[in-house]
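tool_call: predict_structure(chain=1)
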Amino acid sequence: MGLAQARKARITPRMGGRILADALVAQGIDHVFSVPGESFLDTLDGLYDVRQKLKLVTCRFEAGAVNMAEAYGKLTGRPAAAMVTRGPGACHGAIGVHIAMQDSTPLLLFVGQIPHEDAGRDAFQEIDYRRMFGSVAKWVTQIDQTRRIPEIVAHAVDVATSGRPGPVVIALSEEMQREIAEVADLPRVQVTPAHPDPAAFVRLRALLGKARKPIAVLGGSCWSPAGRSAIRDFLLANDIPVTTGFRRQALYDGTLDNFAGDLGVGSDPGLIAKVKEADLILAIGSRLGDAVTQGFTLLDKAGSVPIVQVHPDGAEIGRVFRPALGIVANLNAFAVAAAALEPVHAHWSAWTAELRSLREAQRAVPNYQSTLNLGHAMHDLERLLDDDAIVTTDAGNFAGWASRFINFSDAQRYIGPTNGAMGYSVPAAVGAKIVFPERMVVSLVGDGGFLMTGQEMATAFHHGVAPIVLVFNNQMYGTIRMHQERAHPYRVSGTALTNPDFAKYIEAFGGHGEVVSDTAEFAPAFSRAVASGRPAVLELRMNPEQITTRATIADLRAGKPAPKPQTKTKRAAARKLPGSRGGGKSAGPRGGGKPAGKRG
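tool_result:
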């Protein structure tokens, strides 16, 4: 809606719920992901009136709804809205706010609120949302006056999308939604993005001219197609080796000769060693956070190795690592300006080639001791993915298989939670498929994460979309088991899982399900899942011993003493009388657990 149109708009009395729905449309919000609640019934009624302009997606769990909205923001660079009810609904949805904050994703979360007159009484489902979300959102507010709905919604969108993008939480009082007011809708604001200082490029070219081993680290969010293309042109023209931040692999075309891999959890040790040799770091969009810098140890905080850090939020530049040059700029504006520069005469072609050879070397598949070699399966998946496929991932060690063995190409997208939140991938995939129904969408998730939010497959059926989910089943919380074996070898406590037959789970909905236990089975099973046209689950029965792509449980235990076998005390032996029960064979695990390599 333009400013002139808004001024001429006829102001008619409307209920607050309708004003809110119209305000979302006016700000360009076209998807709302929600679990309904009585605390915002009038807003749901308002959304009914704009159903031709705004799609309401009914979800099964608030965490799933907010994760769908977060995935929308990652993929489009624009915010979607999530709506949840007060109290428990807000608590369930909070994980999505934390993901959006740490991942710099624009997001709006609307939360129902109790009546005004009950505030401060510890009323049913009462929460002070400003206190609850104050540390995990860019802005938290509450709409109490109906006339201020357009103003607050417009400002919320501006906050969510400006600077370092992030989540905004808006509480909706009950009375405000029912009251009638006469107020105009507000137009969207066109803001020119922050452009880099031309003088910064003089300094940047001087630093590049002195370098012999530069390396780029790409990160951040809200990259546009034009920005991605421009930053690729700049980095290729200067032959600079490129790494991507944790779970940002698809920011750069992995098939190009200057792509060196990703920095994050489970990165190639060879790449990490090479970053330590670098004499110039170009951090473009990356906050140089915990995972990227290997626990803030990879770089010198004082800046003995020059760092050029480009970020839209000046407060993030030099937050931990002091740069030689900080550039406050919109990432896409920086990329376009950088691509127009005269390339620096590179002195590092051998360095770039060496880093690329490391990337290809780590993609060579070892002879894993399993009937299902997931390295080969990921190579098959790379071949079978559509050119514009969207791949979502969950948190967990299993995610290392894709990041190590797949080079995502230019038009493909790979998204996941950089904050390590389990339960993200399935709802993210369902949301992505709803927004982009014509594109192939594949979810990668562990057995632990799938049973946290796998019920959102019901949302896929409800809205008629068909994502494909690969469940990596090793019958454990794998990442925690890895750390457990390092800290307390042989003492398995709290990390084992008992799972259902995941193929039968999706079949119960009417979807396509298969169990894959052998490498040769994967590609045909995936092709059948695609051809089915239905929501699909492929359960990949992993070897539980292969705890990461580079280590087995035996490797983690190597050199550490095994516990001594427990001996029965005389008193315990005396208790066991002749003829008593308990001397037979074990009945096996309770709950129907099945060996990882066999179908029950």
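agent: The domain at 198-362 is CATH 3.40.50.1220 (Rossmann fold). Proceeding to next step.
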